[in-house]
Amino acid sequence: MIANEAELRALMTAGLNGDAAAHRALLDRLSRHLRAYYKNKLARIGRSADEAEDLVQDALMAIHTRRHTYNPGELFTPWVHAITRYKLIDHLRHTKAAMTNVPIEDAADFEAQDDHAGAESALDINRLLARLPEKMRRAIRHVKIDGLSVAETAARCGMSESAVKVSVHRGLKAMAAAIAQGRTT
C-alpha cells in the first residue's frame, strides 16, 4: 500500500517528537496513498468513489488521534495498514445493505484478498494468542480481531468493561514483548 517505509517512519517519529510540519507532511503523503487504496478496494465491489473519500478522512483521523499508540521502534506501514483495513471493514459492516448489489464474482475477489503472507500472519497471531491466559485471549480476539466494542465483549465474556480494557492492554503488551524477543512459535 505505501511505498517508502523509511521516509514515512521518519515523518511519524518527527511528528511524535513535536514537529508539526512533519506531521502535516505525513498526513498529506498518507492521504494520497489511502485515497488510491480505498478507491481500488471499493471499485472492485462496485462502490462509490465518494465512500473512498469518507474512508480517507476516517483513517487520517484515526491515525492522528491514535498516533500515541505507534511504537517508533516498529515498522510504520503495518501499523497504518491495520488502521486502514479496520476502517474499511468497519465501513462495510455499517453499510452491509449496499453489499447485496455486488455481483458475486466481485465480492469473491474482494473477500479473497488474503494472500500467503496474510495466512502466515494469522498463524503467528494465533500462536501468540495461544500463549496468553484465556481471559486475555478472548478479550483480544473479540475487541481487536472480531471488532466488537468493549461493552459487547464485556457482556459476552461476563467481565466488566474495565477488565476487558485491562486484559486487552496487558495481552497486547505481552504479545509485543514476545514478538520483540522473537518468540512467535
Automatic annotation (TrEMBL):
Residues 124-175 form the RNA polymerase sigma factor 70 region 4 type domain. Residues 35-96 form the RNA polymerase sigma-70 region domain. This is Sigma-70 family RNA polymerase sigma factor. Gene3D superfamilies: 1.10.1740.10, Winged helix-like DNA-binding domain superfamily/Winged helix DNA-binding domain. SUPFAM superfamilies: Sigma2 domain of RNA polymerase sigma factors, Sigma3 and sigma4 domains of RNA polymerase sigma factors. InterPro entries: RNA_pol_sigma-70-like, RNA_pol_sigma-70_dom, RNA_pol_sigma70_r2, RNA_pol_sigma70_r4_t2, RNA_pol_sigma_r2, RNA_pol_sigma_r3/r4-like, WH-like_DNA-bd_sf. Keywords: DNA-binding, Sigma factor, Transcription, Transcription regulation.
